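Subject: complex prediction, re-run

Hi both,

The earlier run crashed halfway through, so I resubmitted it with identical inputs.
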Amino acid sequence: MDTNYTLTKNNKTIPMIMMAIGVVAIVMGFMTDTTRAWAVLLHNNFYFTAIALAGTFFVAVQYVAQAGWAVGIKRVPEAMGGFLKYGAIGMILIFAFGHEHLYFWTHNEYYDPNNPAYDHILVGKHGFLNIPFFSVRMVLYFLIWIGFTMLLRKESLQEDVDGSLDHFRKSVKLGAIFLILFAVTSSTSAWDFLMSIDSHWFSTLFGWYTFIGLFVSGLATMCMFILYLKLKGYMEHVREDHLHDVGKFMFAFSVFWTYLWFSQFMLIWYANLPEEVVYFKVRWEHYRTLWIGNFMINFIAPFLVLMTRDAKRQIRILWVGGVIIFIGHWFDVFVMVMPGTVGKDWHLGFIEFGTMIGYLGLFIWSTLHELAKAPLVAKNHPMLEETLHHHI
Amino acid sequence: MSNQAAVIESTVRDPLILGKKDYHQITEDICRPVEGKANKYWWIAFIIAFTTMIWGILCLAYTIGNGIGSWGLNKTVGWAWDITNFVWWIGIGHAGTLISAILLLFRQRWRMSINRSAEAMTIFAVICAGLFPVFHTGRPWLDYWMLPLPNQFGSLWVNFNSPLLWDVFAISTYFSVSLVFWYLGLIPDLATIRDRCVTPTRKFIYGLLAFGWKGTARDWLRFEEVSLVLAGLSTPLVLSVHTIVSFDFATSIVPGWHTTIFPPYFVAGAIFSGFAMVLTLMIIARKVLSLEQYITIQHIELMNKIIILTGSIVGVAYLTEFFMAWYSGVQYESYAFMNRAFGPYWWAYWSMMTCNVITPQLFWVKKIRTSVLATFIISIFVNIGMWFERFVIIVTSIHRDYLPSSWTMYSPTFIEVGIFVGTIGLFFTCFLVFARVFPVIALNELKTILKKTGNQYKKKGTY
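This time it finished cleanly. Structure:
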């Protein structure tokens, strides 16, 4: 039961091929349209960082809530957090070299009173949206996220070795501290990385909306990794009862995401204030199919697919649900990033999908390597018996 | 459902039922308040609550006779005390629904000792809440006009674009489902009381209330199926009711009201205030009814953790709103928030901040969150803070509107205060009567977890 995952030959080669495709797509992107390439990079870098972060968040929540059932699967979200370091490097590089293309608040002309482009709204935000402060915040986010991911992982692995209950206790504390910091950084990072693209626009709900979206895609990804491990004959202790619970989470948070989507959209649409409604206007005019599709694929599809008890207990249907949610939320982030960067001349071609495949390759590579480093079951976790006898 | 959950429980979990209870002892302990005579303290509390309620009724009667001109509203501040109280009471109800629906889905066994009284609280709180809009219309005898009924009054028809109408639907649905869910859970327990009755009158009344429950396997099967369906219906209701209440404000273009974070933040705030009220009530009830072995320190600690969680969510939302008011660059929005914090109603704002954001953070200290006295005091603080939150949102946002010549202040009349105090009397009267005629703990449901979490069945963990 407490075996490590052994990387197969395909596990080593396929992610490499995917990453190669990604590199080709990115290079092609820079050769055709620089802004588009940076936007695609930001889109994918944010999306996969968010998924990795959802892994750490999931682990922290399970400790703080003292959930027993998830002990048997916790090595998977733990391993997902391993991608964060690549996300950090990516985000720092993207901001350092691509900010001119992505965030128009970084352009100097808006702050020069003698320039016709002078923008008093951006000047008003300058105390928050300026390159040094943005950079400090960005580094701080990743230090917190990576730091806590590593600390939680360390306690978990050390527990395997000496079996002391102190690791569990310490993890609960670490989890609680992480959740406080995450409550703030998840919102502020969403404002920074995504909302500031549309630099004039604002919405108080934006941070929570983004966070729930990333949590759902993280759950779907986690689910698919568990299914893959089962497919390969690992994780026999994870039965349909555990999958059922993972499926419930995917279902429930898809609905919750919809609730936040609706709340944000409806209130802005109803009040119809020009400074707010402009955000949806551009999406309605130039991204209509994707914008409506986003709602359909992230609400209607998971709602119908994962509604019944039987659906959540069947591996095949969970695959379907997982893939739908994963792709659906990829499009959600797409519709958040693109209108403010590439505008109405958006594309959905090899550059976009190729980069996604590249990032996915890196994510799979990173997660499988992390999984291979440690046993798949935390054998000394004090709630292990609960997960082994989990029946619902 | 919960009783299908794993039998094996980790030793790090503390027992939820103390005192080496057996099944019979649970029945005895929980039926005692219903079967025995009320003690002196119950009568004192009841007389105070009942008198307060009568006072509220008199104030309501005065309002009906004289119109809402007897309140302190004016042409700038058209919503104030009454809507504050409405939102406050509706929010308090949310803990009951959260415990009965969402904690059920999360398989939290500790909900069993508190769900019955929290659900009862929901129903009483919604009744108190409903009074305010009903009487704010000024002509409560025409309130059926709020329903989309076919009529002969020409163009009289409800406005489906109005969130106030959505509220009518949301709250009446919420009330109905909560009432049915609560009563359904009571049926097996009422049958238990019926079977223990010694006088024929009592037996007849409880027999009627128990709907002929026999406790057969077929009865239980149906009971569990219906419970699950109702839990499924209640879960979206927890979110939808306060969401729609938040729409009352957020769909407008009033600075300080129109903000997208309102729906989830109102829901979190509602659960926050609801748990504070559950704590206030349960801390008294466990003492007066000698239920300390069922509503343990662990229960109090877990509820305090929910207070920390929801209180922090509310705190983050306050800061987000304040930040966005500045970040948006909209001068009206910025002014509204500066006016809240430093304007004439600064004391309301800082009372809200102190009670809602700072005091719950004390629960990070284990000693404080496991102390009954400290919890009781902080729960009162949260109740007060959440009242001020609604007052701040409602009054400070509208008392200084776009037109400075209309700026004004609002203060309540003694009639308005009387109605509010009267609803508190009504709430406690209902709760006290409930505690005498119905079992305050779901005893049959509690028995299903005895062998998992009773302290004589558990090896004490080392955690």
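The interface with chain A takes residues 4-13, 105, 107, 236, 239, 243, 247, 250-253, 258-264, 312-313, 316-317, 320-321, 324, 327-330, 461-463 of chain B (CB under 8 Å).

- K.
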